[in-house]
Amino acid sequence: MKPNETGLSIRALAIIAHKFRTSLSIINGYSEAVLVQADKEKFSPFTAKALDEINVQGRHLAELVRKLGAFNKVMESSPKALEKKTLGLKELLKDCASQAVLQEKNDTGLETTDAGKTMVKRGTFIDIDCPANLSLNANEEMVRLGIEELLSNAIKFNNKMEKNIKVQVANHGDSISISVRDYGVGVRPQDVGRIFEPFFQVDDDFTGQISGLGLGLPMVQRIAQLHGGSASVVSDRGLGSIFTVKFAR
Ligand SMILES: Nc1ncnc2c1ncn2[C@@H]1O[C@H](COP(=O)(O)OP(=O)(O)O)[C@@H](O)[C@H]1O
Ligand SMILES: [Mg+2]
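Predict the joint structure of the above. Result:
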């Protein structure tokens, strides 16, 4: 087994994710079934609360395992093995925005989509600025994973709810860059160099809430690198962040 920079071999992570996924789907299936079928009126307040908590934490764990699976897949891949096709960026980005809102909805009670734009919370949208016919030759699953991760992060950390999250696409000829801007907590200068490291999490006090693994941004970086590109961030503490991924065309 080849150890990688996480200290655990990718193979070991894949086995762990698979074992967890199997047990979790059984646990979550039963907990959903009890919540849907049971006569809730008959539950004591304690039982009702316990069931809700089991359900919420079960879904949370399932999301962590999904992420671990995606991380493994991306880390194991190589540029040569990537199946690429022509992707219409505007449609793809709209789709990613809806997915990211759905993903974050479980944790934060967000609103769903609105015509044209994707509503994050009442009055706040994800604005997508992308030339109409711009396309990218890339692996669709990976591009979606990367963009959805950046958007999920932006939704999580965009605490200035009056400001829209902005997605901006630029065509540089031999490459395309996609930037996701939020108006949230921002990243401290001392952390900017480290947030792309696997399992790096910033202090709870600063960001307020962290429930992830710290695998999203390393995955985004690797996705960009697999496509001959890079990932970067420009951020101001308290003012927000702009995460940019670049893909070679
Ligand atoms: N848009 C953002 N604004 C501020 N901090 C962020 C943002 N995105 C990521 N971070 C910081 O980077 C850490 C790691 O993020 P990420 O790699 O996506 O982890 P996870 O896999 O848990 O989603 C987060 O816990 C947070 O501290
Ligand atoms: Mg994340």
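The radius of gyration is 19 Å.
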